[in-house]
């Protein structure tokens, strides 16, 4: 049996890593989380409540406790945005004149609607080389571009080829801008775009004259919009040949904020600085930025890279655990400097550089994606932007704009998982081969229903015990995702839901039907697989 002192010590160290000094919770009013910091402080109270439940299971052995799933059903950890799972399209697609995606395709629009509500981020390194040309009919192509002969190019490699050693400016015309905005309108998504920050004045400030043209055109068309400014500024010396200091970038954001107020006052979000992981640049920027300038801090994360990715990494407990440490560091930095603004994972996937062929576009990539969603929600990230909706190996749609396994995983997640996050005991502990996260279920389930997100990283079938009597005594709907054939076929790009192959029906999404199960106190977990159990009869106070 795990000792109470060890569990309390773990909770204490976790809480201190997450937040500023913890204030005692004196009343129910204090338990209403009004800021990011107070929401994360709530983990201490949640853990203490969960410990009271845990004491009822002291006779269990260490092994049985480790395979048990215990959820605090009384209070939620936090509440994320209903756009928590969101997507990106790389700005390189502008360079290729949108050849990677047919914005008017009924099937593409329907697949996008399957992820509603969501936010689309159009950005990435190429955003800082875009020049808006309102009267331009064609493209000023990069050196070596294949834009005029894309029918002969493997579309799955377009975005990879778009990242040369040296970047060259290219243009975006009004027709291209209209196309993506009309797509966003058709899908019901929100939209955020990263403006080019590499336009500089002689004194080193942001030269906003060209971005201002785009902003004014956007306003004239009445397009709903949110803005970012620059991508991964710590890499500017490599991609642009010069640097922009965090302090100067903070001033540039303040300039953009002023422009937004006068040109696109309906824009809700200014987000940045889109750094990679918890770099010193991120902290220095947050120190320099004035209150009220940005309302979302953004960072990027990849587990590995295209060139170094290996098959075992995709279900490596050690590699999945590495995200916990990095997310904790970013969370702590933001809470220390600006606890009242949202935290977004503004760009993320399995392997940087377009993803690893045969891995990032296969079923096995779902372990990284689903585990990251679970951890990011616990760390109170309002949004997690999946790179990418379409374009390369790590996309949700393949080069033929057909849904890959991670698309179906995302669609099931959107169908079931609500915004209130519940605390699963030991869900931030390292070394977990059975990984569990929980949310209140979406509202089409009865009030008080709980959705349990489960991953089995073992190479053998196993079971997990439900420690909450409320869960054990509840009937449930099961949505279990496995590769076609058997669970060893993890390199398949297809996926089954409860044994039924998921595929489009013409241009339409199929019904995502559950398998009903009667109440019992255990869950069977097939080897190397993941899925969802929705407990319908729980009446969890946190979800009422």
SSE blueprint and pairings:
Layout: H1 4-18, H2 36-54, H3 62-66, E1 68-69, E2 71-79, E3 85-90, H4 92-95, H5 106-113, E4 119-123, E5 130-133, H6 158-161, E6 170-173, H7 174-187, E7 190-195, H8 209-221, E8 226-229, H9 236-239, H10 246-263, E9 270-276, H11 280-288, E10 296-305, H12 317-337, E11 342-352, H13 366-378, E12 383-386, H14 405-416, E13 417-424, E14 434-441, E15 450-456, E16 462-466, H15 469-472, E17 476-482, E18 496-497, E19 500-501, E20 515-517, E21 522-525, E22 529-535
Parallel strand pairs: 1-16, 3-4, 3-12, 4-7, 5-6, 7-8, 8-9, 9-10, 10-11, 11-12
Antiparallel strand pairs: 2-13, 13-14, 14-15, 15-22, 16-21, 17-18, 17-20, 17-22, 18-19
Helix pairs in contact: 1-2, 10-11, 12-13
Description:
By secondary structure, the chain is of the alpha/beta class. It is 30% helix and 23% strand. Strands 2, 13, 14, 15, 17, 18, 19, 20 and 22 form a nine-stranded antiparallel beta sheet that branches. The longest helix has 21 residues, at 317-337. Mean pLDDT is 86; it is low at 1-40, 53-66 and 138-158.
Low-confidence stretches: 1-40, 53-66, 138-158
Structural class: alpha/beta
Q: Please state roughly what percent of the residues sit in beta strands, choosing from under 5%, 5-15%, 15-25%, 25-35%, 35-45% or over 45%.
A: 15-25%
Helix content: 25-40%
How far apart are the first and last residues' alpha carbons, in Å? 33 Å
Gyration radius, rounded: 23 Å
Main beta-sheet annotation? 9 strands, antiparallel
Helices, by number, come to 15
Oligomer designation: single chain
Name the shape in a single word: globular
User: Residue-averaged pLDDT, rounded?
Assistant: 86
Counting DSSP E segments of at least 2 residues, the number of strands comes to 22
């Amino acid at each position: 049996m795990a000792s109470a002192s060890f569990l309390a010590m773990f909770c204490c160290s976790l809480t201190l890593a997450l937040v500023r000094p913890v204030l005692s919770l004196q009343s129910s009013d204090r338990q209403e989380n009004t800021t990011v910091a107070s929401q994360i402080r709530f983990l201490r109270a949640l853990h203490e409540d969960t410990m009271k439940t845990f004491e009822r299971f002291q006779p269990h052995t260490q092994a049985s406790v480790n395979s048990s799933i215990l959820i605090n059903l009384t209070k939620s950890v936090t509440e994320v945005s209903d756009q928590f799972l969101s997507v990106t399209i790389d700005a390189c697609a502008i360079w290729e004149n949108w050849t990677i995606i047919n914005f008017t395709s009924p099937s593409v629009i329907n697949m996008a609607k399957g992820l509603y509500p969501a936010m689309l981020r159009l950005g990435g390194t190429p955003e800082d080389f875009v020049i808006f040309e309102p009267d331009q009919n064609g493209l000023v192509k990069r050196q070596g571009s294949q834009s005029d002969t894309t029918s002969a190019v493997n579309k799955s490699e377009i975005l990879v080829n778009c990242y040369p050693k040296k970047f060259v400016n290219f243009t975006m015309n009004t027709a291209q801008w209209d196309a993506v905005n009309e797509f966003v309108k058709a899908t019901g998504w929100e939209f955020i775009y990263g403006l080019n920050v590499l336009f500089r004045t002689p004194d080193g400030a942001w030269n906003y004259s060209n971005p201002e043209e785009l902003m004014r055109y956007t306003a004239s068309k009445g397009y709903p919009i949110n803005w970012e400014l620059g991508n991964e500024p710590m890499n500017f010396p490599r991609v642009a040949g010069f640097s922009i200091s965090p302090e100067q970038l903070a001033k540039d954001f303040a300039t953009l904020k002023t422009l937004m107020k006068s040109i696109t006052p309906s824009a809700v979000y200014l987000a940045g600085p889109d750094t990679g992981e918890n770099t010193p640049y991120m902290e220095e920027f947050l120190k320099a930025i004035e209150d009220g300038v940005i309302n979302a801090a953004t960072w990027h994360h990849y587990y590995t890279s295209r060139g170094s990715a290996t098959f075992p990494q995709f279900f490596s407990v050690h590699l999945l655990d590495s995200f916990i440490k990095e997310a904790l560091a970013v969370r702590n930095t933001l809470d220390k400097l600006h606890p009242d603004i949202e935290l977004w994972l503004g760009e993320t996937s399995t392997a940087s550089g377009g993803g690893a062929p045969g891995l990032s576009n296969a079923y096995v990539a779902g372990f990284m994606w689903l585990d990251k969603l679970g951890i990011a929600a616990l760390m109170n990230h309002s949004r997690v932007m999946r790179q990418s909706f379409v374009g390369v190996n790590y996309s949700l749609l393949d080069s033929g704009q057909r849904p890959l396994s991670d698309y179906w995983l995302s669609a099931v997640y959107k169908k079931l998982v609500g915004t209130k996050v519940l605390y699963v005991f030991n869900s931030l502990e390292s070394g977990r081969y059975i990984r569990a996260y929980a949310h209140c279920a979406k509202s089409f389930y009865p009030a008080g229903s709980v959705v349990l997100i489960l991953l089995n990283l073992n190479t053998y079938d196993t079971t997990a015990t439900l420690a909450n009597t409320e869960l054990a005594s509840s009937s449930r709907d099961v949505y279990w995702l496995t590769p076609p054939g058997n669970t060893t076929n993890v390199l398949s790009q297809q996926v089954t839901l409860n044994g039924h192959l998921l595929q489009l029906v013409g241009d339409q999404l199929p019904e995502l039907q559950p398998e009903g199960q009667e109440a019992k106190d255990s869950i069977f977990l097939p080897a190397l697989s993941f899925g969802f159990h929705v407990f319908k009869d729980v009446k969890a106070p946190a979800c009422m």
